Structures are given as C-alpha cells and as structure tokens.
Amino acid sequence: MTEPEPRVLPEATLTRLTQYLRALNAFEAQGTERTSSGVLAKEAGVNPAILRKDLSLLGSYGTRGVGYVVTELAEHINRTLGLTKDWRVAILGAGNLGRALSGYAGFASRGFKVRAILDTSTNLIGSGVGDLVVEPIGTLGEVIRREQINIAVLAVPGEAAQELIDALAAHGVKSVLSFAPRPLRIPAGMIVRRVDLSTELQILAYHAVQS
Amino acid sequence: MTEPEPRVLPEATLTRLTQYLRALNAFEAQGTERTSSGVLAKEAGVNPAILRKDLSLLGSYGTRGVGYVVTELAEHINRTLGLTKDWRVAILGAGNLGRALSGYAGFASRGFKVRAILDTSTNLIGSGVGDLVVEPIGTLGEVIRREQINIAVLAVPGEAAQELIDALAAHGVKSVLSFAPRPLRIPAGMIVRRVDLSTELQILAYHAVQS
DNA sequence: AAGTGTGAACTTTTTCACAGCT
DNA sequence: AGCTGTGAAAAAGTTCACACTT
C-alpha cells in the first residue's frame, strides 16, 4: 500500500471516477454508509472489475471482505480529481450557449464558480447574465487577474476560438473547455477539452442508420 | 477492394471521421481538389497512419501514389455516417440550455433540423424559440408523429431524464443526445450519447492540478 | 517518386480469475 | 464467507514499415 500512484491517470479512468463520485454522493445523500464494487459499479453503469482497477490506481481504500466506506472513498476521489481546490471560471462568449452555461447548475456545484462572462459584441457588453455583467473581451487579461480565473469556457464561434486560446495562454490560464466546433492548436502546457455537438449528432446519425 | 467493411465502426474512428469531414469541407470551400493522408491528418490533428487505417475500414477510396479526391472522400464519409438522410430533431427542455441548443448553428448544418422544442413549464409553453413554439411535454407522442422526429436532445434536469428516455423509446425515437448529468438506463435498441459538462470540468480540474 | 493500404508489432485498456485480508 | 486488490490473459486501438499501385 506504499502507493504505486502513476504520474497521470488514464483519461477513461478519470471519466469513470467522476461517475463513481456522483454515485457516491447519491449514496451519501440517502444515508448509505458502505458500499461494494458490485453495487457502486452497477450504479455508475460499469463493470466491477474495472472499478476496482481504477480505484487501485489511486491506492487502496477498501477493506477486503467488506467494501468501501462511502464518505472516505468520495473524499479520496475528490482529492485525486483536485476538487478540493477552488475553481474560478470565466465564460468567453455571451451568446445563447455562453449564457446557458453560466447558469448551468452543474457548474455551480463542486467548487466551480463562474466569476466572469465576456463578449465582443457591444450589444451584449454591459448586459446582465445572472448576477454577472458581460465585460468586453478586450479586458480579458484584467478580468483574469481580478477574478483569479483558472478555468475558461470557450463558447464563441469557431473563427474566434484560436486567438482566444492563445490569449488565455498568454495570461496564464491553462485549462479550457471549448465548445468551438473545430480542432485547435494547443499552446504548450495548456489543457483543452472539447465538446463538439455536431460530432455527437453525426455519431448518433451513424448508429441510427445502422439499426 | 471487395470490402472488408465491418458491421460497425469503432467509436474512436467515428469521432475522427467527423473531423476528416470537417477538414474536407474546408478544403472544398477553398477549392482544393485533392489531398493526401499527410495533409488531411495534419488538418484534422491526427497521425496519418490512423487516418489511412480509418479510411481503409470504409473501403479504399484513394489512389496509391496520388492521394484522395476531396469531394469523393467527403461524399463517401457522408454516406457512411448517414448524413445523406434527413434528421429531424426534437429538443426536450426549453430552459437556457435547450433554447441555446435549438439555435446552435452546428445543428442546422448537415441535415439536422430542429423541428420541435418541448417543456413541462406552463411559463414556457407557448413562448417562441427561434421560429418554433414551445409545446407541452405531454404532447410528445403527437409531436414525434407530426414532425417525424428521429433524434431527440435531452436538455432537462437529471430527475426528468429517465422517464423521458422511456417515453421516447415508447414512441419509437431510437437516438438521443443527453445533457442530463446522470447515467441512464437505456432501453433496448436505443442509442444514447451523453454530454456531461460537470464531468468535463472535473477532468480539467485534475489536469490543472497535475501541472 | 509518391502516397495508399495493410499485415505485423506495439501499446493501452478491459476483463478474468484468484490469492489474500478481514 | 465475502469482497478487495492485482497479476495475467484477452481485447481493442494505434503506430510502424513496407509492398504495391499509379
């Protein structure tokens, strides 16, 4: 148990860890104190073996013959994922998507705080979005410093995305979630995750035609 | 060349195919007639070997020593993905996210037409969203029949998602893109893809802490 | 000469199956 | 007796490298 903890966890494992966490939170909410790989895996929709393998990558926190203590395991995954830190998010783009995201409940939970929303359009600048006011993209550097932004969400049209990624990098923001429908050149040291709605639909179309 | 075409393409291949398609469309737009695995792979941000391997799964459409004809290859990928068919989309949930999605340009392109938007809230029912009017979820079956919906987008709170999936299944809609932040029990024959924003943020947090 | 198509090697991820704790 | 933790096996996915076609 002198941990094997690898430098970096596989992407697939990370995705599953967030699902385990969600299930564990549900268990906590309903007062369940202990669980097992079988029960938890079922709740998260995965196979128990991979769950145990995933958890073994973070070190061992279960008890053989017994299972896992819900709060302990949740706490441990939280720590591993960095969810004990405070995340301050700026949303770039105050169009429909940007505004929808700024109010998205999932963002508010787990220490992700939307602290700013920016746009280029003079129509939008100055207007209110929830309890924020849309600021000009030109003030990006200032906003990042003022609010100590450490995560940015890109909800702008494809054309604008690359230059904003570069600007974010220049201002020291290293983590970006992009909704721009195009591949981006990622500056060194930056982590960009993309959510691509048209890709999702196209893959659905393929499966739908199959059946 | 009497095709090896597998019954079903790997998920990772599908994702890349949509990227190739996007790059090919850009080439078409700028009048480029031919390309090669090297050029196309660079544009799509992948390695040329996997690109050729992916394309070989759909049968061979290149010319050795020469490369690929842009329009031909695009057409071929389009056919494979089922993008020659007409896709009629209903959006379930007319909150911020649902409304943002209904106007999302990526949906309008490539034959995905948003034909209906539904909600439970009497505040929203009857209000306009783009050129659609929000209809009551209670009329789901009727709307699906009337508009011949074949893809649904779930933009509702987690609690409502499962029963809507079941209702969609009952009305013969087999393809769903879900934004609900929870795992769903998928009725037989249905394909559900999930986009989970809090999972994305949590994975970003992990990587941000790493560095 | 150039660039595809593809077996073979390699790498990563998942699943199996069981030894080892409690 | 029960359930974890984990090597070993299997499967899936990626990259290499080169024969083959134009």
Automatic annotation (TrEMBL), chains A, B:
Residues annotated as binding NAD(+): 93-98
DNA-binding residues (ranges): 19-58
Source superkingdom: Bacteria
Subcellular location as annotated: Cytoplasm
Gene3D superfamilies: NAD(P)-binding Rossmann-like Domain (3.40.50.720), Winged helix-like DNA-binding domain superfamily/Winged helix DNA-binding domain (1.10.10.10)
Major place of residence: cytoplasm
Described purpose of this protein according to its UniProt entry: Modulates transcription in response to changes in cellular NADH/NAD(+) redox state.
Subunit (UniProt): Homodimer.
UniProtKB keywords: Cytoplasm, DNA-binding, NAD, Repressor, Transcription, Transcription regulation
Organism: Glutamicibacter bergerei
Stated name of the protein: Redox-sensing transcriptional repressor Rex
CoA-binding domain ranges (all copies): 82-183
Annotated HAMAP family: Rex
